Amino acid sequence: MLNIYLLPVGSGRFELYSEPPEEHSSIEPRDGPFRRTFHGLGERWRETVQSARRRDRAAGRLKRWRDWSVCRVAEMIAEQRTLWSIRNEAAASFVYPSDLPESIALARRDRMLVHARRHHGIWTILDGTLLAASGVFMLIPGPNVLAYYFGVRAVGHYLSWRGARQALDRLQWETRAEPALAELGRLVDVPRDARASRVEAIAESLRLPRLVAFFDRAAVPVR
């Protein structure tokens, strides 16, 4: 069963977090043109990301900007994988900090999912429209990076919208309080170097190898 964590990342701030397995989709002969089109976009996008991550100090300003944009979208995709993974699930375990009453944890979860459903629904429409408009750049030689950019964004937001809808309307939830998440919340205000060993230990105890990088990126101390 998929575990969805209510991760504390600041004063009164939480993120829904999980580490679903990597998806490696394949195309079968019976698959339709819609699925084939987006599969092809995904394959070309992965190639574009790999190229962007290979730093070229001699590259021009336009290419550096393009590579930065590609890497930023790749980070966005990683952050949306939790909602993506929910879309095909029938049940999930909701794990929340043990110092938070269950009723409050559930209310926060549902409020975040309602916001996500609306947010990703709007952006699916906007990025889909921009994807269609970017077709004019197919006349320019070379890869149509704008089409890849808006195509991946449109697909990403659509999958996130589906995940939020599934979580709100159909998913069967189990709940579990977790002391390690409560400790993680108390580490938000601790300097990164000082808390590093404890965050790593918590990530290891929860079997979440990518948690450290996500927490360091998302956690915002009280000011």
Written overview of the protein:
With 223 residues, the chain is of the alpha/beta class. The protein has one domain. Helices cover 61% and strands 13% of the residues. It contains 7 helices and 4 strands, in the order E-E-H-H-E-H-H-E-H-H-H. It has helices at residues 33-53, 61-86, 102-133, 145-169, 179-186, 192-206, 211-218, and strands at 2-10, 13-17, 91-97, 172-178. It has a 4-stranded mixed sheet. Strand 1 and strand 2 form a beta hairpin. The longest helix has 32 residues, at 102-133. The chain is globular, with a radius of gyration of 19 Å.
Give a short overview:
With 223 residues, this protein is α/β, with parallel strands linked by helices. The protein has seven helices and four strands. The chain has a four-stranded mixed β-sheet.
Major β-sheet profile = 4 strands, mixed
Shape, please?
Answer: globular
Average pLDDT over all residues: 81
Percent helix, as a range, is: 55-70%
Question: Count of DSSP E strands?
Answer: 4
| Count of the domains | 1
**Rg value:** 19 Å
Assess the beta-strand content as a share of residues: 5-15%
Secondary-structure class: alpha/beta
Can you list the strand order of the major beta sheet? 2-1-3-4
Along the chain, the helix and strand elements come as EEHHEHHEHHH
Q: What's the helix count?
A: 7
Q: Termini distance?
A: 38 Å
> Are there runs of 5+ residues with pLDDT below 50, and where?
23-28
